[in-house]
Amino acid sequence: MTSHDNRSIELSLAQLAALDRVMSIAEFAPDGTLLRANQNYLVLLGYSLEDIRGRHHSFFCPRTLVESPAYELFWPRLREGSGSSGIQERVRSDGSSCWLEATYTPVFDGNGEVVQVLKLATDISARLEQERVQQERLRMLSLVADASDTAVMISDSQRRIAYTNAGFGRMFGWRGDEIKGQSPMALLVPDRDEQTIAEYYAEMYAAGAMQREEIVTGKHGQRYWAKVVSNPIFDSAGQLQHTVTLFTDITQAKMHEALQHRVLESMAREQPLTEVLELICLEVERIAPEITASILKVDEEGQLHSLAAPSLPSDYSRQLNGVRIGPMVGSCGTAAWRNESVLVDDIASDPLWAGYQDLARPLGFRSCWSTPIRNSQGEAIGTFAFYFRQPRNVASALFHQRLVDACAHLCSLALERENSRQRIRQLAYYDALTGLPNRSLLQAKADQAIATAARNNEQLAVLFIDLDRFKQVNDSLGHPAGDELLRNVAAKMRRELRGSDIAGRLSGDEFVVILPQCDGDHAADAVERIQTLLCQPMTIANTNLSISASVGVAMYPSDGCDVETLLHRADMAMYQAKSSGRGCFSFFSSEMNKLAQERLALENALREALQKGQLRLHYQPQIEMSTGRLYGVEALARWTHPQFGDVSPARFIPLAEECGLVAELGRWALREACRQLSEWRARGLVVPAVAVNLSPTSFHNLDLPRMIADTLRSHHLAPADLTLELTENILLDTNPSTMKTIEEVHAQGIRLSMDDFGTGYSSLSYLRRLPVSELKLDRSFVADLEHDEAARALSNAILGIGKSLHLTVVAEGIETDSQSVWLQEQGYPVAQGYLFSPPLAPDALAQWLEERVVIEEEAGVVG
Ligand code: C2E
Ligand code: CA
Ligand code: CA
């Protein structure tokens, strides 16, 4: 801070006196010893003259200065005559330091020798301190400007960029010199129109400051949600000089705020899940218009379901429904599969989209970025996807990432909330063990079903099912095995029931099934089906188990009109069933119960009768009207049960049909009728043919033609010896074998006869499709012949149809002479009925035949 020069100063005394007042002055000997000092000097350093006279100059200097090489030269140079000036630190008497701006001037004698050194000093400590403070402030300011993350921009009076700080460079990517002189608006919000810009400035100047939240774009297209604070600075004349603008990146906070606030609010208002999620999508699309957002759910089976995609065509979303996630299933299916984000930049070429690009490309989507939505266990329960029509801007990646972060969290919140709601519903209304409705849901569903039944005037059955000896299973195999058994039973029940049926678990091993549109018979069928199903062995805890259930049935409306009554009565019926042993069922009402029990007993008895050959055939003669000769006999099944007595075929044939015995019964009847015919013939009796009744089910069997041929052959009978009677409901039969079997039987030369003709279909066209050669006029027409003209007209018409199709028409059920006369007059060729003979046991028929031969012989008709 000091410098030497060779200028010497000539000072007048007056000047010196003036100086003496304002400056600190000291005189040193050429060796540096202090000779004199003025008052200012003494005050400045805090000494009295006595204290310091004779002290060396170095006494006042800080140690560091004295020890410096510069100081070593200081006095020698002064002695040589070089003056010195500079700013120097001095130590006061109290040890504190002060700063002096000092000039050292050598004073020469006449010989040019230095005799004295004059020091003139000014205390500049205060000034220096001020400067130091100032500099520190500047340093701080530049720190503020450059080290802070706030981007600072100063524009000039022409609204051109004059200065940007380092933070601005970091945020937006421009160097200061790159953009100096440009319009800030054109740079940062390029799509803003003139009008809006003008309004912006006007508002800012008027208010003197302005704060906004804007989405601003940087050099590479990166975007920020920024808080923009602008302060215009005017001079004293009110002219705009500069505008200082600060930008703070508030993207994260803002996204959270914009999304979270609205989304949470809509959740709090209990809006449906899809509405909440659509809100998220729309908000995303508002914040980043280049994005089309879509949210999919992944269900437990790993299938995708569209939840929200308000800007995608609904057709597109529909096609994604049910798509299974996997390693190559577009962006979303793959993201869910991998449980990580999947970014496909080129849908057209990426193998992940190979199977799906035809969906997305027509909509113009080029890329798709999908992120899994995770539940609290970290499993992917959905996906959140951004579709882009333009190539994705890499600089926007961070912005998009922040959007994804904000949304994925909200989506998972919304989805988890929905899931837990469903769980709560499930817990409230479903039995946790079996997944079946619990008592309260069952009750509600039953109420509905009963209301429907009442409206439609229908019956409804309530089944109370209680597993037999469930406690034993629990006790011997343990509770987990018991639970498994119950789950198993529930699964079996669910499989067996129709969609409209309702099944539920009341408690323990008690189940309830409600069957709408169901009468007593159907209820009994359902019970038997369920009981059969439960009987099938299952493996529980490595043990083969076959269980049974006791079932009680109550019927609406006969047993009760409300759920409680019906349940209670079904329960009572179940107790009754239990008392008769395992695997039984009981109806609540005694009458219905009796019917159902009888039916069950009868069914078992019939099965046994068939097995043990306890059925028999009776034969009813058919008479040729014109000659009185035997045309043939119809075989009719008879069953006499040791307990039940004679059971009418009108009862046991339908029963056989329902319990699947009728085909077997048909085979038996065929064999038995043929055997009987050949036996009669062997005894010399003339029986031209035997007619056997067959149910449609018999024709399902493609083996029937061969079986008939074998039977005929083994009894030495010709095909013409056999007639098969079918009913019109064979036309309702949809089994593909039926027609084929009929054709084959016909082709063998066996006659087919259409039974009960006139009672079924009005369409006669089927007569051309079915190869029948005989019609049997239903006996209801015959019964009315005498009194009802319409019946006569009908019988006449049917005969006409038969004749025109070259079919033999047999009138059955003839009981009186007058019926016989009418039919004979109309021209009926064949008659059958009690008038001639009831169905007869084989021996009785033989006897009947022999007696007729005698009568005929007596009357002379034979021959
Ligand atoms: P269907 O084939 O129409 O048999 C004629 C029914 O009329 C027989 O009743 C017969 O006993 C009765 N009948 C005969 N003459 C008269 C009469 O003059 N007056 C009245 N009122 N009835 C008469 P059934 O034997 O009780 O048989 C009832 C139905 O059971 C049969 O009607 C047939 O559809 C079916 N059926 C009988 N046996 C068999 C069989 O072996 N297989 C099949 N699939 N069905 C059979
Ligand atoms: Ca018949
Ligand atoms: Ca008939």
Description:
The longest helix has 33 residues, at 397-429. This protein is α+β, with helices and mostly antiparallel strands. Strands 24-25-27-28-29-30-31-32 form an eight-stranded mixed beta barrel. It has a six-stranded antiparallel sheet with strand order 1-4-5-6-2-3, sandwiched between helices. It is built from 31 helices and 32 strands. A hairpin with a 5-residue loop joins strand 24 and strand 25 (630-641). It starts with a strand and ends with a helix. The protein is rod-shaped and about 205 Å long. It has five domains: 3-123, 2-Layer Sandwich (Beta-Lactamase), CATH 3.30.450; 128-249, 2-Layer Sandwich (Beta-Lactamase); 254-427, GAF domain (Beta-Lactamase, 2-Layer Sandwich), CATH 3.30.450.40; 430-588, Reverse transcriptase/Diguanylate cyclase domain (Alpha-Beta Plaits); 660-841, TIM Barrel (Alpha-Beta Barrel), CATH 3.20.20.450. Helix 11 runs parallel beside helix 16 (397-429), helix 12 runs antiparallel to helix 16 and helix 19 packs across helix 20 (520-535). Residues 620, 636-637, 648-650, 653, 666, 669, 693-695, 725, 755-756, 779, 813-815, 833-834, 839 line the site of ligand C2E.
